Amino acid sequence: MPAPFNTFKAGLAAGRPQIGLWLGLANPITADLCANAGFDWLLIDGEHAPNDIPTILAQAQAIGQRSHVIVRPPVGEVHRIKQILDLGVQTILVPMIETEAQAAEMARAMLYPPQGVRGVGAALARASNFGTTPGYLASANAQTCLLLQIESRAGLAQLDAIAATPGVDGIFIGPADLAADMGYLGNPAAAEVQMAVEDALKRIMSLGKAAGILTSDRGLAQRYLDLGASFVAVGSDVGLLSGAAAELRAAFAGAATSPKPSGY
To answer: Helix, strand, or coil here: 189?
Structure first.
C-alpha cells in the first residue's frame, strides 16, 4: 500500500483552483468545525499562531480526510520539516524565502534520499501508520508538495531562480510582509503593493508554477482567481469568529464600535 494520494498537489498540477482557509486558533475543535465547511485545504499556521508539533498533530487528526492539511512552520528548517512530514502532513508552506539556495534546501528536506535529506524514521511515524504501510518509503516522495512563500523585495528579485528550483510545486505571495518591506506597513491594499502582487502572480504562472495568496477581502480573492492564482486562502478562523462576533453585537441597540479584522 503506497503513501496517500495528494489531491491538493494533483489539483495544482491540473490547474484546478484550490480554495482554502487559514487556521490560527491552534484548536482541534475549531479545526474539526472548519473541516465541515468543504474547503479544499486548511492551513495550520505555525508562524504567527501558537502552534507546535503536538497541536499541529491534534488539528491534523481532527481534520482527517475532509480537507487537505497544509502546515506553515515558523521558519524553514530541515529538522522541523521532517517532524511535520512524519505527522502525515504532505504539503508544507515555508515562509520568508528569498534565495535559490533556501529553496533548494527546502526541496531536499521534503524528500527521502537519494533525492533529498529527509531522515528515515517511518516506523515511528503517523505518516506510515506507524510502520504498517509497507509501501510508504517507496512512494512518499511523489506525494509531498512544497510551497514557498515570497514576501519581500529580495524574494521577488530572485523569483525566477526560486521558481526554477526542482521540487518546488508552488509559490505563495505574502502581501502583509511585502507591504511592510515596501514601506506600507499595515497597508497591503496600497496600489503599489497590489501592482507588485499581481505582477508576481503573473510571473509565477508564466514560469509554470502554481501561484497562491491569502486575503479575506472577497473582491480581491476573486481578482486573484481571475488572474489565474490556483491556491487562494479566502479567510481565517480568527477573522471569521472575530467578524461574526462583532456583527452580532452591533445588531443590538447600544453596541460599541468594534474594530474590523484585517483583510490579510
So the answer is: coil
* pLDDT tens sequence across 128-176: 999 999 999 999 999 999 999 999 999 999 999 999 999 999 999 999 9
End-to-end Cα spacing for the chain: 40
Element (H, E) at 211: strand 210-214
Out of 3.40.30.10, 3.40.50.720, 3.40.50.970, 3.20.20.60, the CATH code matching 7-250 is 3.20.20.60
* Distance from C-alpha of 111 to C-alpha of 213, rounded to nearest angstrom: 25
For 60, the 3-state DSSP assignment is helix
3-state secondary structure of 236: strand
With a CB cutoff of 8 Å and minimum separation 6, the contacts of 236 are: 21, 22, 23, 24, 214, 216
Residues serving a catalytic function are: 48
From residue 210, alpha-carbon distances to 12, 16, 93, 133 in Å are: 6, 10, 13, 30
Please state, in angstroms and rounded to a whole number, the distance separating the CA atoms of residues 85 and 144.
8
Q: Which residues pair with 91 in a beta bridge?
A: 70, 145
Q: Is the Cβ–Cβ distance between 193 and 178 less than 8 Å?
A: yes
Rg (CA), the chain: 18
Copy the grid coordinates of residue 137.
518509503
State pLDDT tens for residues 55-109.
Answer: 999 999 999 999 999 999 999 999 999 999 999 999 999 999 999 999 999 999 9
Of 222, 37, 57, whose CA–CA distance to 130 is shortest?
57
Distance (Å, rounded) from C-alpha 103 to C-alpha 147? 10
If one counts every other C-beta atom within 10 angstroms of the C-beta of residue 27, the result is 19
Helices vs strands, H then E, count in the chain = 12, 8
